[in-house]
Amino acid sequence: MPDLHPVGHISSGKAQSPYYSRQSVKLTYTNIAVIRSRLAPLLRLGFEYFVAHVATRLLAAAGSLLLIRLLPVNEYGFFTIALSAFLFISAASDLGVTETLSYFRLRAAKNRRSWEPYFRAVIRLRIHLFCVGFGLAAIYIAYTASRVGAQNSSIWVVTAAVGVAAWFSTQSGIRTYVLKLEQRYRVVYLVETTNETVKLVTVGLAWWGGFATASAAMGGVCLGAWLSASVAARALGPRVQLAAEHMAARRRRYSGLLLSQVLPILPGTIHFTLQGPLIAWLAAYYGSIANVAAVGALGRLGVLIAVVSGFTATVFIPRLLAISDDRIFFRRYLQWWVFMLTFGAFVMTAISARPDVLLSILGSSYSGLDKELLISAATAVIGTWSTFSWHINRARGWARYQIYRVPVVVALQAPLFYWLDFTTTEGVLWFALGSLFADFAFQTAISIAGFYRERMKRSSLGGQN
Questions:
Q1: What's the rounded Cα separation, in Å, for the pair 287 and 172?
Q2: Nearest C-alpha neighbor of 398 from the set 389, 410, 387, 406
Q3: pLDDT, tens only, 290-347
Q4: How many angstroms separate the Cα of 365 from the Cα of each of 288, 309, 357?
Q5: Spatial separation of the C-alpha atoms in residues 43 and 316, rounded to whole Å
Q6: With 0-12 CB in 10 A as exposed, 13-18 as middle and 19+ as buried, what is 465?
Q7: Would the CA dihedral through 159, 161, 166, 171 be positive or negative?
Q8: Among 45, 122, 81, 451, which Cα is nearest to 277's?
Q9: DSSP character for 424?
Q10: pTM for this prediction
Q11: Which residue, 236, 246, 327, 377, has most beta carbons within 10 Å?
């Protein structure tokens, strides 16, 4: 007797009909297709980011390590002071201003208006902040470099180079962020790769020509910043001029809206902008030029570990913010934490096992810094975690308690001045690690409180319904 139930031997129920079986298979294939369509863009972005970012990091690493081996210890110490001033100007001319474009872009889209006037307002404010930051950086370079024995002529040349490099870096940073918002990641990768390639080439030319000085090294930073700014400006086209015309009548209004987003986080941003120069100053004031050079060289290795934070800010967080369902958002948030914790554990285990391998890359002048290397690596790992937590808090609008950021971190930093010996490289690095860990703990507490409040809010709304 033929089998009348090809799906099974239970004769009752719609689930056993051949029609339902075909529909189930069709639905299964449809679900798989939906999953693949959702994963494919993220996987493509992740692969492109991995290739581009690895290439950029390798170029940066090659340039940095070649420079460490090329420059004498005293010149690299001077370059570390100049580089910390350059990074200070770049951060001080931003202070979170550029990232407000993501908020204003969303606001303009909801109101069906152009967001380019806010773009111009950001440029104007950053120019003013640049002037202030450069003035402070010039004083810092003059005082700190003279304390470690740098010549006045070299100080003036390096200060001018720092200003020029920071100016073009500021222009490049604004436009690159707009390109990220427009999800033109390939152009962003081109800008970043251009910068690092030019710096590597100039370091090679300096080595070939025998110009082993901090001035020559900063010249390469200038040239890289200028070319990357040119590439970014060409990619965006004439929108700056268009925005300038639109801003003529409403400049004050847009600037006020911009400041309303920046002022709540300003104290904390200023405080952490000063941390880089503070670390270099502590090494120079209490130690010697050799301490400054060691801090700078180990910091260059730590930058390589921060590759995860770059992917977090460039690709993962923008994709995460597109999720409107809070439960899915929280699940993705936890999944990324698992990845970052695993990556951090792997990095620390590898460096603990063979610190001599990385130190040999720096050269004989930096041998024997095993413990200092571990501290620098831990600082980079925790910096990745802290950056992620800060971005999440900013994106979710959990800024209510950010006004306590500086008092809390300063209160935790204060005992370090009494416990640590800043005449050693190890003491300076422990201070950097302790300061960063204090901010990480603060940002994590805000994230936990934020998610808890959102959960309680959903529960109360569910109870009312």
A1: 35
A2: 389
A3: 888 888 888 877 666 665 555 555 556 666 666 667 777 788 888 888 888 888 888 8
A4: 14, 30, 14
A5: 11
A6: exposed
A7: positive
A8: 81
A9: S
A10: 0.69
A11: 377
